[in-house]
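ingest -> validate -> predict -> emit
validate: passed (alphabet ok, no gaps, 103 aa)
predict: started
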Amino acid sequence: MSDNDIAVKVKPGTRPRIERPRLYKVILVNDDYTPREFVIVVLKAVFRMSEDMCYRVMITAHRKGSCVVCVYVRDIAETKAKEGTELGKQAGFPLMFTTEPEE
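emit:
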């Protein structure tokens, strides 16, 4: 019997279950000072959204007080929120993005 003739039975074992990382929402918080046009510029730059989608997010935050911009894993969500908030600060506006866990 050669090595090629050996039959190997593989038992189906239990695979370790890999948990998906928890997702976080990036939220645009409305303020009465940041110009709408600037909010749209930041949304386009940081979140790579279309002009139309940026407008809808900005108007929703304006009318309801806040709006979920997108959902990412924690590190990316926090980085994007910080980047957007920093762009507002650099321009002298109180633009604010926050993050919170998705239910």
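The beta strands are 23-29, 66-73, 96-101.
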